[in-house]
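Weekly structure sync, notes
Attendees: PL, DS, HV (note-taker this week)

Item 1: Glycosyltransferase
DS walked through the input record. Source organism listed as Sodaliphilus pleomorphus. Sequence as pasted into the shared doc:
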Amino acid sequence: MNPLLSIIIPMYSSERYIVRCIESLRELKILKEVIVVDDGSSDGSYDIARKFASNGEIKLFHQENKGVSEARNLGLDRCSGDVVVFVDSDDFIIGEGFQSMYNNFTLSKAEMAMGGVKIKCADQHIEVRMAYSEMVGRLWKGDECFANLMHTNTFTPLVFCYMFKKSFLDRVKLRFQHRMSEDDLWTSIAMCEAHNVLVTDDLHYVYCKNSDSITGTNVSTIFRADNHLAVANDLYDYLRNHTLSENAEVWLCCKILYIASIAVKIYIDNDYYTFSLSIEMFQDLFSRVLQSSNEYAKKVGLMFGKRLLDTIKSVK
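Item 1 (cont.): predicted structure, written out as tokens:
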């Protein structure tokens, strides 16, 4: 019998956390498969995971270190459930909230569902409701859901905040790209492509901000900036080649300008001036923002655009 739920866990040197992660999934009363993809770990993570694989609790795959995006893509290639979720190896789920979100999602006609997370930092739990309260409990057309979340400043790109129908992922043929900032690209496009998105307030996941996670390690700042700029360029390519609602279009412009402004600030703060910006892209983004009838989005877009230009002008 095929599993109803596929849980994909990319793993890299997570020997301190992987047991907690896998064990948190045990209480789920769902026919599931747990796919762990080892991304060339340099510690004992693989050996620990292999013990879970030996008793059939997980399916374990290994690849040379290629980054979280390629690990997730391998999991997507091997999964067979009707619903797909992603869990990071140093995080864990909240069983009751996860079960509730799954039940609400599968009873709906949505292709994608959004839930809430807790952020755990230095043993302090901070509850974060990722969606604006008036959006909860409704089905939204995908691009309008994106626009409303952006408008209320409650859009989150973090992929573990969501559940996806496998048939939807097969339809849009979406793949993870880049080694960092990959969620910004994936989640923005996924939401804009979804026919319907269910917004819930089910608190289903604990995000652990550890100093030894990939986002907490000493990754080159220029590498971070390169990935931000690549994501901005890819989102712009998507914008040019797809028809979105007016609100979704202007908010996607805002997001691209925001991501690009982060990249440029990192470059200039580090006296790195060999990056390449497309003048045509930014002229087009500004034009789209200025033509929008959404005055609030226009204000936000122009703010990010001004921030970008001011950063560039600061170079002496």
